[in-house]
Write a structure and sequence with these properties.
It is a single chain. This protein is mainly α. The protein is about 70% helix and about 0% strand. The protein has one domain. Helix 2 crosses helix 4. The termini are far apart.
Amino acid sequence: MIRPADVCRALLAALEAAEGRRRSRKRDQTPDGIGLAIKRDLLQRAVQDDPNPEAFEEWLLQCALACAPESAGAVSAMARAIFEEWRLAHSLNEFKDWLDQGAPSADADEGKGKPHNTEQVERQ
């Protein structure tokens, strides 16, 4: 069984493409930046903590429960999205292959060299 940390490491690379797409939009990007920052934080924590596959859903739930009440909804939503992507990596070989290749995307280059935290995003 694939370890959650391995999938989350690959999802971090895929997040770069999302950054590129987000920056090309012609509207207020603050909510998108906040959501991506939450997701990035959860992915980085999963890589660092390397939870067991059988306990990954519970680990994500505990992350959401441990956060500040005002951000619990957003953290829960991102935790659910990560869990679904982790499950997808187990059930769809094409998705796992794409992650194994480093989640290549033409949009990834557009996000390189840009800030990756909400404090920097809010100043833009």
